[in-house]
Every structure is written in C-alpha cells, then in structure tokens.
C-alpha cells in the first residue's frame, strides 16, 4: 500500500520526505498569513513540494514594505508586495512584484491579480455567461482614497453627469452603507469603475479582475501597458485618454445592446489567436519554479556589497540603496 501524509510525496510506492523549509515573516501587512489570501495562496503552493516550518529563526524570510524589522535578520530575504514598489536588491536577496524588470533569477513579475485565484477563474469564463438581464448602469466599490489618484474621483463626476453611479464602498457611498461582498454587489451592473491607485507600467491589481468576475465591463485606468496584459476588446481603457471621450464611449455601449454584448463576451486572455501576457499566470508553474530555485539551493544569501544594475523597461537602470525612509516605507529611486 502506498503511504501518504501531509508532507510526503509518493513515487513508485516509495515514500519520499519533503524538504523542510524554515520560514518567517517581517514587515508584512498581516498578523496571520492565513488571513491574507495572497500569502496563503503562496504557502499552499509551496506546501505541494516543501514542508514549511514557521520559525522565529528562519532560513528564509518573507518581508514587505511595512517596517524595517527585516534588516535585523541575517538570512535569505524574499520581498513580496502588493504595492507599486520595486524591490531594492541591495536589501533583499529576491523579490516578487509588478514591475517589468528582469534580473536573472532574483526577480519574478507576478502581479497581484494572479493571486486572486477564484476571481481570476471567474474572469476567464465571464464571456460564457448570460448578460441579457443587466438593468443597472455602473457601480464602484472604493473605501480608501488616501493614496489614490484624483482620476478616480474625476471619472465618477463625469459618469454621474450621464447616469447615477452607485458607490458601494465607504467613499461617496450612496447605497445605504458599505456592501459586504464586492462581486455580489457588482453583478447587477453593466459597467464598473476599476481605477488603480496609481499609473505605472506593469502595476495591475485585482480591480479589473474583480470587475470581470462580477460580469461587468471594467472602466479601467492605471497601467499604460494594460493592452499587453489583457484583450483590449474586453474593457474600456481610460489610461492616457480624455475622460469626456471615455464618457462618449460608455454612452454608446450603454445604448447599443450589440456593442455591449460584444465587449462583455470578449475573452480576456486570448483574441484571434493572440495570447496576452496574463495567460502566463493561469497556472502556478512560474511561482513554484521561482521558489524552487531559491529553496533548492539550500541556505544562502545573494545581497551584493554594492549597488547593482537591472533591466527596467528594456533599459539598464541603477537601483540605489535607501534614499529616504518615510512612515516605515522605503522610498527608492531609479536613475
């Protein structure tokens, strides 16, 4: 009989113990990784190959931008962020982020939306649903505008001059209070506003994915290279556009059922034989491959003594050491 356990794999009826990894956390946005969908997804992925031991004396440290505790550890540091921040490879051995940089095996571009597994799967299938019963115009769910671009407020003003936009978050709420479930709330609407906090190449979060998962047409603003990530026939792109022109496009689609159905039924990953960049994140092969390269080396460090050069948007750029520290967040410069 084949032996099976939580931390073992079986090959030819022989039990092979998984490699044990001592893992810790510092400067992260959660107090329990199980409360973070993104980190719990990564841990679950790793546990298919490794036995994870959470330790105060780790061999490998997951860290982010919410403090400076990581600098006290003398171990291999892996930077993970959902913010628009480029990892500083003078401070961290490895990094995962949004930016389209290439730095050998020390960096993996893995945008936040790829970690929203359930929503991503719903978004992939959204063009197969029935949308003939949508009777509400447009909605948004936003609560924190502290660090967000003013463009989000501007699009709400522009759209509201045409028809009411229902706001289900704490910001400009007009539906009787914050909604409990964003996707369930959006399901009655034809359009939804999916504006990033900032505009930067590669910085694409869960916002557009959640709009699709709810079966709406996203009105998107953010990454200028979004057209490389997803099929542009599946959303209204506001980036680098006059918002009055965006309104005219929204009005035309809203008033023409044929145009609405064409856009809502457009697949997000493929179009006429073309595969968009997001298709590479459908499976977790990239993520597991990146971590396997780290953990299979054994205990090690790769932080250089001096500054290093990376490829950023196909151009060589020097990444500095810490230029400034503000509120626990490391502010870095690329030059």
Polypeptide structure, described:
- By secondary structure, the chain is α/β, with parallel strands linked by helices.
- The chain is 22% helix and 24% strand.
- The strands form six sheets. Strands 4-3-5-6-7-9 form a six-stranded parallel β-sheet, with helices on one face. A five-stranded parallel β-sheet has the order 11-10-12-13-14, sandwiched between helices. Strands 8-17-18 form a three-stranded antiparallel β-sheet, with no helix packed on it.
- Helix 5 links the parallel strand 12 and strand 13.
- The N terminus and C terminus are likely disordered.
Supply database-style keywords.
5-stranded parallel beta sheet; single chain; 335 residues; 6-stranded parallel beta sheet
Average pLDDT rating? 86
**What distance lies between the first and last C-alpha atoms, to the nearest angstrom?**
61 Å
Low-confidence stretches: 1-14, 319-335
The assigned structural class equals: alpha/beta
Shape: elongated
In percent, how helical is the residue content?
10-25%
| Biggest β-sheet description | 6 strands, parallel
Q: What Rg is obtained from the alpha carbons, in whole angstroms?
A: 22 Å
Question: Can you count the beta strands?
Answer: 20
Number of discrete helical segments:
9
Please indicate the percent range of residues in DSSP E strands (runs of 2 or more).
15-25%
Query: What pattern of helices and strands is seen along the backbone?
Result: EEEHEEEEEEHEHEHEHEHEHHEEHEEEE
Strand order of the largest sheet: 4-3-5-6-7-9
